[in-house]
Design goal:
Length: 92
């Protein structure tokens, strides 16, 4: 195994997991929703879009179960959400 491959695998082992989430809102201000989401634990980024979707967020955690917990916690604060799409990268 090459040194580059070994370094890549070591980095991947230390890497956290992320979810990219697209939100569609029934009503409300996407900018305000993004501001609220940015304050939630695990949320690395929340940006309003010229939707739909209306908001994109990135949630990060050290492992998948914690990622799921943080995602549910963040999304539960969005009362006007009518739809969401979770995009999970493939690691490994």
């Amino acid at each position: 195994m090459s040194k580059v491959t070994t370094l890549f695998r070591e980095k991947a082992a230390r890497m956290s997991v992320r979810a990219y989430i697209l939100l569609c809102l029934a009503k409300g201000n996407p900018t305000l929703v993004a501001q609220v989401l940015r304050q939630k634990p695990g949320v690395l980024m929340a940006d309003p879009l010229e939707g739909p979707p209306d908001v994109i967020i990135v949630v990060e955690a050290p492992e998948r179960q914690k990622l799921a917990d943080l995602t549910v916690q963040a999304l539960s604060s969005v009362e006007t959400m009518i739809e969401n799409v979770h995009l999970l990268p493939i690691y490994g």
